[in-house]
Amino acid sequence: MLKKAWIMGLSGLVLMGCAHQSKNTDNTDQSRNTANEVVQSTRVQEHLVDETLPVCHDCILGSIGDEELQKQNKQIFFLHGAEHLNLTNNHFDIPVTYNAATKKWITYFTGRGRKHFKRYAERAGRYAPVLSKILNDQGMPRDLIYLSMAESGFSNSARSWAKAVGPWQFMPFTGRRYGLEVGFYLDERRDPLKATVAASKYLQDLYGLFGSWELAMAGYNAGEGKIGRAIRRYRTKNFWKIRRGRYLRRETKEYVPKIMALAIIGKNLSRFGFDDVQFEKALDFEEIKVKQNTDLYKVAEAVGESFEVMKKYNPEILRWQTPPKAGEYVLRVPVGKKVAWESFENKDYVIATDYQMYQLRGYASLYHVGRKFKVKSDILAELNGIAKNKKLPPKTVVKLPFHEDHRARKHDLYADLYEKPRKSILRKRTYQRWIKRGSRRGKKIPNPSVYYVVKKGDTLWDIAKKTGVNINTIIRSNYGLVKSRMILPGDKLAIR
Q1: Which residue segments constitute the domains of the chain, with CATH numbers given?
Q2: Which of the chain's termini has less CB crowding within 10 Å, N or C?
């Protein structure tokens, strides 16, 4: 069990904004400033606290068992219909339903997906107890840690094809709206503490909006707009009734019972044959302050650690250095390494200097250099102190944000810059370009009287060839249909 955990005094932290597919607000900058100010103000002193977390027998770390849960001054829910399982823990602080959908996921995680659950459970030892405490401090149910388990398996580096990142899988736009910095050098969606506070606020907002934890969890996956429309369409706030309809994606329909199944298994490990889980050791840490543009390789050398360990303790830092223009930065280091840092005298040594250099062959601007190396010109302008649109003469030396020892296109630190989109994304982008061009160039058919019914395998190009109608005209005349999705069998397209 976790004996000690770093507690940052995050109780009461309020972050404004929305997550996932949430509505727009004008509070992005205010959110970031509020988050930074409160986190800094609560970091009064650095110490490790003996954290007396509620004991949960037969659970993953961070959970709270029946005995302790029933002492809490909060709403609790009993798992009806599962009495025959003789579970150790039957109470939860989120509603958990035992039905066919939940059973399916229990069967998966105790069968074909057994290795996945065990890996997630073992990983819970590292951060789940602290995440649980943050949720509780924010007035949220502790059992929502199973939402993070479903999203990422408690992995800070988890990344979806849609570019959702971190233990709570925030999208870039929504992460920023919750005050999380998402940029070239930093991605605070990977910081388990800050991301948990942001997720708490969003889930709190969703629960306030729908009055249902099932719908709040569904909204976290699909966005509150989608769930709001589903409620209006089916005229109910009962998730299980909404789930029967066709409106929600399969992913969202399965998301809620998946979380519930993880909670049932996670709080009854031995009942499901997981009594051999070896929890990972908690990442106890201390904090040190460094200047802007600090080289993590050199800090690691100064405190007698490896670069890999420094990255593990600071998962929000994407590159090999702290941001060049962010001012003083707080780094986490393993317990005992703060003394080594304070006794290290040559603090200027750790400033980042080992940049790659690129010499221009002809006239160019930082925009052209950025396109070549997949780096935004704003980043190059900040690093070099040169206007991004300034015309530079041949042989000008430009500093690149890559370490001189790295091959950027092959190194993991820059994988996000050079990754290729999935084929499905490329197809969608190509399709959107066609639609945009067609809507601009095509002639709209007035009062159409002849329609073509789409057959399996048809594309807009095929239909244009079959009917002899210009593809741009087809797009313009059926723009309301084709602008949001590709055509499907049975669709009727106006052609004359």
Answers
A1: 4-180+192-272 (1.10.530.10), 285-350 (no CATH), 355-418 (no CATH), 423-494 (3.10.350.10)
A2: N
